[in-house]
Amino acid sequence: MTVRKAVKTDLPDIMAIYRGAQTYMVKTGNPTQWPVGHPPEAMIRQDMAAGACFVLEEAGKLEGAFAMYEGEDPTYRVIQGAWLTNGPYVTVHRLASAGRKSRVADECFSFCEQFARGKCVSIRVDTHEQNTPMRRAIGRCGFTYCGQITVKDGTPRRAYEKIIPYLQHPGFVDDQFEIEP
Fold it and tell me: Residue 123 in contact with residue 112, Cβ under 8 Å?
């Protein structure tokens, strides 16, 4: 599976992936995380305009979609708990699978880790308490539960972080990033 930035012609397939994911969430006991129409097309267009919308593709078919943003996410400023790091991070949002392939989340997180290596100290992600499939994927991919955040609509989400191992390069200052014990 390859990961690439989404292009405008991907939009209908991306929206179909999200609508399928909504149906899947309802069937698996998570009816409230993504209400009907979420994420809206306008949000995906904003992700695309920001260069943050990515797709996972195999044999010419889109198998998944997600948004990845580099830099501080305002939603993560307040946490009931504690983040593992205080350094720069990337955030994954709106990760969804077309449902034809397994381990799409693993591919997404692997890509994000490679993207962020050398630029950021961690990856952050959140999900709904009832999103058992995503919680399993997050755990399988090495994330640590850090606490609860509140999203824009006022609902709680479980927040996770994964520290990105880095290779030491000449001139790299070890204490450049503060990592809390």
Answer: yes
Which residue type is seen at 117?
R
**Under DSSP, is residue 13 helix (H, G, I), strand (E, B) or coil?**
helix
Long-range contacts of 29-33 (CB under 8 A, 24+ apart): 29/130, 29/132, 30/128, 30/130, 30/131, 30/132, 31/130, 32/128, 32/130, 32/155, 33/127, 33/128, 33/130, 33/131
Phi/psi at 35 (5° precision):
-65, 165
Phi (first) and psi of residue 134, to 5 degrees: -70, -40
Give residue-wise pLDDT tens across range 110-166.
999 999 998 999 999 999 999 999 999 999 999 999 999 999 889 999 999 999 986
Cα–Cα separations (whole angstroms), residue 6 to 34, 36, 154: 21, 23, 29
- Nearest by Cα to 19 from 37, 45, 41: 37
In whole angstroms, give the CA distance from residue 44 to residue 62.
Answer: 15
The structure's pTM equals 0.89
Measured CA to CA, the distance from residue 6 to residue 141 in angstroms comes to 23
